[in-house]
């Protein structure tokens, strides 16, 4: 598991799963459809990404394509980091 | 007139018009009419009788729309249950209204199975979505599980509505709402109540077939539910979204689909006003509405500045009669803080504690008359009597809202406050008692008090103040996790505060007034 993947999984497990078995969350599970993240959750997620990876997330990047599963988050973070590099 | 006629009439007049857009999928009026007819025939064949309650525990989806009309067409009463409601409360609601049938996503099948012993009235559960594996019904098992898809196949030929005995004073829906005693109560709404409210609202919003209304509010919330009813009443198009979690995606969709109407609660307007709206082309947007809690005056002023062509409807209502008032557009700039005048075909006045009418500029309780006023609370005569009281015309009942208002000399209403301690967060009612009751079930918690703090985004944020049992240790996260497991999302506190003890009034009750002091 890459370090981004483990960081992201840990953050989601700690902040949104609330004691549910982290193994039950698949990397491609939609946060919206599984109901684990609401609109304030998205803001927490963005704050985490911005802090942890020193990137800036624009309003128009706040879309499910970027944020709505572990896999999508990892892709999004990797893309942002490449933009910086 | 029956509520299902909104769909039936539109399907008759405009069969091929797009009625509903969910994700990438479009559904015409005729498709929805036929699918709800099939499901109605299926429910009847599976034993639904006139007046039976059917709970619909789905998120905003085509199936929830079809289910609502199918239940009505079959002569039943629909009960929407928020998709984030947890099993304990779902059990309470199902038993309180003795629901005979339940419509749920397939993924909740096992939860219902595990709790079936606690659900003696439930006979049938219809599951939506593909099953993980072929599920066989045990002959003796209650409830019996049915698959939505299989029912649609089995009744494929039943495209006409079943014959119905329903008349307009029959119940159409129970809408559960939070009450100050903790357990939610079922607001009984007849076909007449709901068609009357929908007619009044579509009249002042000037809704027309060309309208495209985008709704992100859950259909279990009456404000969300009425977007569906109103759109179908005028043969407009409804765009259903599951949430406002990704505002940019919702706004983009608004623009792509040329949305004309956008209902808001203050929480959403606070999020919108934090965004750079100049990036979006809102030229098709005709109106936004607000209710659930008063829209702060500065929100209205900012919207007026940033979106000058958009009509802003500031409104007030309560589930017990759906809507009470709206602020006419020509008053928005001069009476910005008002929630307006009584909507068409309703009457309002303000009374003192003895029920006597008060002159203008006096603060008192708002009272409502109209065909939209509920029949009462389901099997709760005492609680009904607190709200519905005899009117001057013998036999009529007035609705006492429990909300304090002032009326100016021209009849415009100004919200002053609530009589009880109900919290309004994200536009939805939260009963402090209901949240406290959940906290009390945690073995580590000794005392708990829930209060609402003013919050620029939520309207009110929810703060739990708790004391722990001796030798217990709990973190904020653990308490929040427990809340999330047992409460709907909008009821989960934003903040947990630990104290050694809670301030008490002389009679030993928790003194909440003192807790709200800064």
Q: What would a concise description of this structure say?
A:
The complex is a heterodimer of chains A (85) and B (518). Chain A has 85 residues and is mainly alpha-helical.
Salient structural properties:
heterodimer, A: 85 residues, mainly alpha, Non-ribosomal Peptide Synthetase Peptidyl Carrier Protein, Chain A, B: 518 residues, alpha/beta, 8-stranded mixed beta sheet, 27 strands, 29% helix, globular
Give a written overview of the molecule.
The complex is a heterodimer of chains A (85) and B (518). Chain A contains five helices and no strands. Chain A is mainly α and 85 residues long. Chain A has one domain (3-84): ACP-like (Non-ribosomal Peptide Synthetase Peptidyl Carrier Protein, Chain A), CATH 1.10.1200.10. The radius of gyration of chain A is 12 Å and the shape is globular. Chain B has 518 residues and is an alpha/beta fold. In chain B, 29% of the residues lie in helices and 26% in strands. In chain B, helix 7 packs across helix 8. The N and C termini of chain B lie far apart (53 Å). The mean pLDDT of chain B is 92. At the A-B interface, helix 3 of A face helix 9 and helix 14 of B.
Whole-number count of domains of chain A: 1
- Which sheet architecture does the biggest sheet of chain B show? 8 strands, mixed
Q: Please tell me the overall pLDDT of chain B.
A: 92
Arrangement of strands in the largest sheet of chain B: 7-6-5-3-4-8-9-19
Extract low-pLDDT stretches of chain A.
Answer: none
Strand content of chain B: 25-35%
Q: How many DSSP-defined strands of chain B? A: 27
Compute the number of helices of chain A.
5
Helix- and strand-based class of chain A?
Answer: mainly alpha
**Beta-strand percent range of chain A:** under 5%
From the N-terminal CA to the C-terminal CA of chain A, the straight-line distance is 22 Å
Number of strands of chain A: 0
Give the full name of the CATH homologous superfamily of chain A. Answer: ACP-like
Helix content of chain A: 55-70%
